[in-house]
């Protein structure tokens, strides 16, 4: 696929350089009017039913204007932090240079050329190949100068372009092959000698009076599209792929919409995993999510960015799809249990006991032998301890999960890992089962020692690596705690202690009392069964913690949450946007996730 029309680059590529608000020209040359009316169709109807993903911009000029009117545009052009988008700018400049070689076509002409809808679609391969083909369909203005330049093809200075034509019904299709010579090491050669070898990329294109189609030559996606266009013009009716009906679940369409057939994607992935294998200890087909479709929309406004995701399951879902739309009420005042300086927080209402039982059923179908082995192990623990651990632990889980990531001392000395709080039904039974299970595993496997402690009168268990019968000074690598009907766990004792301190206290120094949290979550739906909060700026600050802490993390093979350029991006993002707020709602067989980032004033 040619670079100038590939996915996310097109919006930047076709916008003129910092012109502010530019009026687009949509006037068509009269010569093309009749053929435009005859050719124009619903672009989505040209896609086959088996299409598994569609990225759709109903109006490209509107999308570009929305981008220019948002704080994203200001962030992209921030000269003080040019390094964040250095690689992206380099690619865009390269694409612009290649287009400049196509006659005298300007960015303004290209921008006006993209006059309507654009679709990027993933189509399964014909002939049973493993990789899907991405094909681009777009409406254009019919500008003859741009059409002429594009039909001439690219003119790279360091490559040879081979061009051929064929007809698909009444439509001419051009095939391009771009051949480059690159240096390659000769295996076994002394001194690292290089040899030149040829590499090529091939793509097909169709440029009609009003629509264009681009795609890779492999799998023939463009001929398949043109065949449907020819049949449509002959009077045959085609409906858009049914996966697009998933977008009906979205309350806000935005300037761009994504639709994905998750069931088909998972099915295709499983076929690729299992092809040619006679037997599997683990059969992933039990995890298929047939009939599950997802849709997402992006809404760019001057004061905010909104992203909405809807996952639609069948009325009677099977397999792993049963787990997607389970819901319970959001934990009450969950954000009061979170430190005020936490930079990531999630609370979820979910029927954990019911979810565990459904997951066990899926696991049993995926691997009867492993499930039988697990069952025998649970029976062995039961016989050794006299306690039904599964009933005492997993079936004792209630309907609430809270997670937070907290930087100790404001992130100046050490990063606290995630801390989790899980609501339990019977704290006494849960404590007895947990104590017996940890003791059994420690003695049976001999991998770690159990450290018992207390905090505010509540029990704590630490897992210290090393044999139980050998003294060790190593700090525990994981901690459990119980307090007020909550099970708390995490890699750092400080995070577990902080959560226990807050349970039942409603302290004033909590995230839920912060104005930035309240303003970020104010636009979320009130009936949500899940909520989240992410402060990218605060996350970025952990990349500047002292070297000894970074070195220790490296020795422990802990990957930073925002390494390198990601940390720089988080810092830049926080200059233009407030923290991101996320919600989860469930209605019948549809789960909806919304993310909102409010823009900071100019």
Can you walk me through this structure?
By secondary structure, the protein is α+β, with helices and mostly antiparallel strands. Helices cover 31% and strands 28% of the residues. The chain is built from 18 helices and 22 strands. The chain has helices at residues 9-14, 30-39, 60-68, 71-76, 86-100, 107-113, 144-152, 221-233, 262-274, 352-366, 368-385, 389-392, 427-445, 493-502, 515-521, 536-540, 547-555, 564-576, and strands spanning 53-57, 114-123, 133-140, 160-168, 171-185, 194-207, 211-216, 256-261, 293-301, 304-312, 344-349, 397-405, 407-408, 414-415, 419-424, 448-455, 458-465, 478-483, 486-490, 530-534, 577-587, 590-599. The strands form 2 sheets. It has a 20-stranded antiparallel sheet, with helices on both faces. 35% of the residues are buried. Residues 1-40, 410-414 and 545-564 have low confidence and may be disordered.
What keyword list fits this structure?
two-stranded antiparallel ribbon; 20-stranded antiparallel β-sheet; alpha+beta; single chain; disordered N terminus
Instruction: Name the assembly state.
Output: single chain
Number of helices: 18
Largest sheet: 20 strands, antiparallel
What's the N-to-C terminus distance?
38 Å
Shape: globular
Average pLDDT reading? 80
Q: Low-confidence spans: pLDDT under 50, at least 5 residues? A: 1-40, 410-414, 545-564
Report Rg.
Answer: 29 Å
Proportion of residues in β-strands: 25-35%
In total, the number of strands is: 22
Which secondary-structure class do the elements indicate? alpha+beta
The helix content is: 25-40%
């Amino acid at each position: 696929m040619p670079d100038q029309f590939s996915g996310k680059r097109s919006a930047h590529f076709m916008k003129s350089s910092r012109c502010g608000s530019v009026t687009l020209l949509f006037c068509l040359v009269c010569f093309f009017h009749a053929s435009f009316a005859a050719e124009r169709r619903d672009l989505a109807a040209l896609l086959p039913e088996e299409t598994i993903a569609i990225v759709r911009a109903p109006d490209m000029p509107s999308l570009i204007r929305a981008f220019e009117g948002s704080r994203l545009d200001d962030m992209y052009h921030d000269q003080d932090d040019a390094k964040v988008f250095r690689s992206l700018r380099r690619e865009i400049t390269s694409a612009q240079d290649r287009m400049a070689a196509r006659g005298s076509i300007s960015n303004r002409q290209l921008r006006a050329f993209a006059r309507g809808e654009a679709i990027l679609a993933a189509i399964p391969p014909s002939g049973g190949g493993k990789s899907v083909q991405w094909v681009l369909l777009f409406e254009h203005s019919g500008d003859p100068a741009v059409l002429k330049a594009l039909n001439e093809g690219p003119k790279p200075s360091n490559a040879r372009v081979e061009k051929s034509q064929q007809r698909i019904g009444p439509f001419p299709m051009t095939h391009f092959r771009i051949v480059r010579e690159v240096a390659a090491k000769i295996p076994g050669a002394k001194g690292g000698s290089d040899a030149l070898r040829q590499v090529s990329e091939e793509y097909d294109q169709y440029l009609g009076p009003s629509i264009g189609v681009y795609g890779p030559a492999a799998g023939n996606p463009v001929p398949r599209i043109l065949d449907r266009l020819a049949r449509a013009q002959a009077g045959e009716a085609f409906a858009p792929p049914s996966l697009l009906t998933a977008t009906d679940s979205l309350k806000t369409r935005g300037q761009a919409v994504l639709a994905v057939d998750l069931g088909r994607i998972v099915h295709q992935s499983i076929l690729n995993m299992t092809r040619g294998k006679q037997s599997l200890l683990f059969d992933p087909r039990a995890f298929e999510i047939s009939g599950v479709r997802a849709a997402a929309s992006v809404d760019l406004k001057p004061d905010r960015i909104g992203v909405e995701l809807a996952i639609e399951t069948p009325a009677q879902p099977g397999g792993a799809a049963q787990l997607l739309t389970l819901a319970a009420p959001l934990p009450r005042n969950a954000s009061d249990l979170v430190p005020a300086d936490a930079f990531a927080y999630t609370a979820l209402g979910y029927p954990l006991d019911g979810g565990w039982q459904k997951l066990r059923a899926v696991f049993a179908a995926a691997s009867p032998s492993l499930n039988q082995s697990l069952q025998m192990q649970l029976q062995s623990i039961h016989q050794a301890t006299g306690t039904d651990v599964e009933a005492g632990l997993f079936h004792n889980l209630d309907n609430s999960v809270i997670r937070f990531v907290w930087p100790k001392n404001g992130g100046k000395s050490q990063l606290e890992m995630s801390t989790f709080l899980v609501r339990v039904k019977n704290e006494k039974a849960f404590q007895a089962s947990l104590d017996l299970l940890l003791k059994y595993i420690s003695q049976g496997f001999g991998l770690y020692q159990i450290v018992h402690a207390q905090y505010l009168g509540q029990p704590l268990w630490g897992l210290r690596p090393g044999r139980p019968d050998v003294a060790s000074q190593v700090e525990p690598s994981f901690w459990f705690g119980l307090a007020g009907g909550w099970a708390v766990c995490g890699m750092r004792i400080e995070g577990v202690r902080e959560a226990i301190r807050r349970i039942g206290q409603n302290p004033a120094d909590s995230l839920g009392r912060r104005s930035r949290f309240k303003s970020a979550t104010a636009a979320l739906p009130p009936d949500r069964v899940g909520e989240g909060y992410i402060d990218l700026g605060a996350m970025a600050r952990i990349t500047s913690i002292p070297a000894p802490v970074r070195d220790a993390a490296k020795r422990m093979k802990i990957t930073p949450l925002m390494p390198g350029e990601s940390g720089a991006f988080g810092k830049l993002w926080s200059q233009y946007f407030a923290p991101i707020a996320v919600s989860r709602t469930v209605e019948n067989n549809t789960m909806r996730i919304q993310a909102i980032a409010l823009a900071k004033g100019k």
